[in-house]
Write a structure and sequence with these properties.
Length: about 180
């Protein structure tokens, strides 16, 4: 469960708690939670309606990427700025889910979200060569993501300038301890 920001019925932003991961029903398997929406898949049936009409912001001050080692080392990235961890938002999508979230589980009625990923930049590619979260870095970008056309919103999905990011923690622990230096 995490906070997301979406446009309310009155057009104003509202903060709500939502469950991370769209639910993918698979015949003969337990439902699978899909936490990331690839930018090159946003026009597919699974994502299209949410991308067109249900975009949200997922507020954050850092994000992590595991490397390919076993066990993986987790690398926490934050924006460079005057504050220790400037706020940003992941470009997100949301929708209502009605059905089971576990094999043979009871039906639930919950709001779920996922965030959008794009190609990694030069810095994040050294950790995860496949994908990186699409970050929204200012109020104008966040407003356009929430209320702009799908074409305008899609234009915001880019790799973050690597000069804007720094690694603030790295290690085997998945938890972010909020340190300002490598841990």
């Amino acid at each position: 469960m995490a906070p997301i920001v979406k446009a309310g019925l009155d057009g104003e932003r509202e903060l709500v708690i939502s469950s991370w991961g769209f639910v993918l029903q698979r015949e003969g398997y337990a439902p699978k939670r899909v936490t990331n929406a690839r930018d090159d898949k946003l026009t597919t049936k699974f994502w299209r309606e949410s991308f067109e009409v249900r975009r949200c912001l997922v507020p954050a001050s850092s994000f992590c990427e595991p490397d390919e080692n076993t066990p993986a080392r987790w690398h926490w990235f934050a924006l460079k700025g005057e504050e220790p961890r400037p706020l940003f938002a992941f470009a997100g999508l949301y929708r209502q889910w009605k059905g089971p979230i576990k094999r043979a589980g009871d039906n639930v009625d919950i709001e779920v979200f996922s965030f959008v990923t794009s190609l990694p930049n030069a810095q994040t590619r050294t950790i995860n060569p496949e994908r990186s979260p699409a970050l929204l870095l200012g109020d104008d970008e966040m407003k356009t993501w929430l209320t702009g056309t799908p074409k305008e919103a899609f234009g915001l999905i880019t790799s973050t300038d690597p000069e804007r990011l720094m690694i603030v923690q790295a290690g085997f622990d998945k938890e972010d301890f909020g340190r300002g230096a490598l841990g």
